[in-house]
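S1.2 Input.
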Amino acid sequence: MSLFKVRNWWKTQCPTVESAYDSFSLHCARLCLEEGEKDSIVVGSHSGQLCIYRPSGGQASQPDFDAEDEEQPAIQTANTENVFQHADVIVEMLLPHPVLGVSSGKFTTASKSDTRLQLVVLHPMRLCIYQIVTIDGLADHGDHTRLVPLSDHLLTKPAFSLCHGPFGGVKGREFLCVQHLDGSLRFFEQDGISYDRTLATDRHIPTPLHYVPRVDCFVTVTPAWVLECYRYQDIAEALESVRRHDPIWSLCVGEYALDLQVHQVSNTESVIVVLGENNLLCVSDTGKVQFIKKLDYSPMCFHAFVAGWYWEPGARLMLAVVSESGSLLLYESDQIIWSAQLGEVPVAIGRANVAGLPGALVTLGATGALAIGYLGSEPQLFRVPALNLAPFEMARCQKELLELEREIRAGVDPSDATIAKAAAERDVRMEVEIDGASMTACTHPTNVPSAGGTVQMCQLSVSIQVELALEVLQLTIATDRAVGCSKDSFLFRDVAAHSTERFNVWVYPVEPAPPASLTLTVFCSYTNKQGITRIQHKDTSLPLALFVKSCQPSKEALHKLTLTISPVSSVLGGGLGQLFPEFTPEGGASSALGLQLVTGSDTRKVTIVAAKSTNRFRVQSDELGLMPMVLECLIKRLHDDSPVHRVAESEVDTRKNASAAKVHVTVSGMPAVSELMKALQVHHELGRELKQLETELEITTGQMRLFERRFVVKLQERSLRALDGILMLLKRNHASVAKVCQLLKQQRHKMTLTRINLVAILNLFNLCFTHSRNTPGGKYLEYLTGLLTPTVIDGTEQSYEEMLLPVVRYLEQTGPLKTGDDQSTAFEEAYLYEVKLREANGVDTSIHNDLLQRYIQRLLGRVNDRFTATGKTSGSGSGRNSVDFEEQPLPEAHNEEAEEEQNEEQDQRTHDGTDVHLSVHLGSTASEWVNYEKQSDLPL
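S1.3 Output.
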């Protein structure tokens, strides 16, 4: 952007206020209507409006030169903008056809003493010539100007542009040439003679056509981007001779010509200026290139003129180019001499001598904004605002954030979203069904090794019932990273009302790792004919048998989860046979179930143990990443989707069984944080190794390109003795590139498995916090689920640890999870920025990963303690909201005896009610399990 601005001198709005103007709609010329007149501005629009303006240069407020006030001249100097007056419009009329171009000249056979010019208007299928007549006014009435039609020529083809000039070297009159859309030419002479001609080369794209008076030739640009020059005598010749119709010279431009202008710069030379899409080209009338100016911007329009008279030695060629950003760049030949900023981006620019301002710049906008300006020398300075050096206060920012949240809640009506959601569900009804009973062998490519087991796939059926006509309907299937889908997106256009769309896809394991969740989500987004977009989704669960198979249960494991159901229900007497019928024989009532991945080579397993006489379950495994899938399935089957509830729904007393089937799930405690830290450390190390391999691959490929260039050079030089060495280097480098690519592929697959494991551990933490026994309020759960979102993504510039670190540090300083001693410091932006610079310089550092592990371990430990302490006081049901927890101090140390007494009281209270409560104790040892129940109850 330029420092200077084009100063406005006069402006107005043309009658058509729409995008109906282009570069051919503006014409500035002296019409010779009276003696000593200035230039007039002719504007034609595609809507048929034709206007002729003659700015008078009247000031908005005329100064009083007789006054003795010394400040008046200063005001006059500052106020240089003129106001639009009604007398500035001399002609305004609406023509019956769109105006494609306007021009003026001597187009009649009038006497040489008549200096008036005629106005020619080009319509799509018509060429009209008008005479401008001025009638003197009587009394107080002013002069009246009107257009008198002189001739009207019908065209046989649609027109594109026109040009005029003294074709054939005649003096005192001018002829017209109309270029059609097919590239053919039609000439009109003043004696009523008209004829058609076609140039030698094929023309499918019309381009501007101009006449060069000095050499009596026409110049144009062909669709092949070649500038050609044709002699008028050859074109006007009636004989069809290919030789005589060929161009006298041609020059390859290499791009489409946006505009073309011709000017005579001396007695012996004229120049053709071509504005391309990327270059500004100047060629003499003999085909010699004067200069080529490469533009580093996208041009919109331009205007060329000669400063001085062409017969004088000091004549200079000036070029004014307008860029797409609204900058006006003024060139003298190929050297830029001035740059200024326009008020808006024009589509046409010209130069005119108006009253009081010779050499004014005339611009026409796409919507008819006509302005006259000049190159002012007053710069518009930009002052840098003062820096806000106030310290960053977290407490104040958190207070402002809470106030903004309250304002948003007060201004948003939740009923609107409910109504919109209900309307979307009525318009488009979606049914999702998983056929888990009939699974077949997988026929799609997977990364799961098939040794010792067969990978299976199940069918997902989706049915969409549309009640109204839709413009676009898109369906997307979102699965876990370890789950593959034969086709995950569908797009339907112009869906008819009351129609049904159905499709089936296959779902199968794609990685040799257990998924973090069995939930599969189908998103449906549609746009109706009014342009309103709605989105809805529906969840379903994949069958557990798709990923695991039954095996021998294990007696001991590193990680154990204990589940308790109270009161004891008679429907659970069948043990695990009713909960997992697909893994137990028919009628079996086993008390222990081992689940192993479908691959036989993978010995990792999860064991589910059910007590004999009590309502307790245990989920145990040596791998923490295997447990969330089984735990989620167990909770879901104990909830409304379990076989227990399907049995209850078939009973006669539906109301009693419905109340008995109501399940409330709670979880106390959380998994070991060390496993999460270990998964984060493995992810960080693999990311570092992956980055090193990518850097090594970039270096080796660069060497390969260098060796290939040297090989081509030696081959051209026919240096056969040097080819052996280059060929040896090529082979060695190729082997190195192939090795690095193979390592990179293996490392990326390891990174994918690591991300799946990390997502599974995060999902396990999320499940535990969501169903925790002692969850004190909604804010805790909202912050924790937002932190432990099961989505691990590494960007190109930032890793997952770098993106998660500011979130954890923010939670430490704000909200209900902040530290109670309030000794937390502000963000260390400068330190982290310095570390980032050291990383860019090749210094290996793990500051982000170390800080993230430290803060997550401290945060989750404090949350666990607060959950435990809240369990002591939450039994009274005080109903405190989330805001109250922000000022709550840190709890005291954990008291196990008080917690056991409270658990016994809570079990006694829930034993008398109708709800089934499920509690999970994480990390419990075998001795704790024996203390809960008799030794004979354990099946193992």
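S1.4 Remarks. Residues 720-770 form the longest helix (51 residues).
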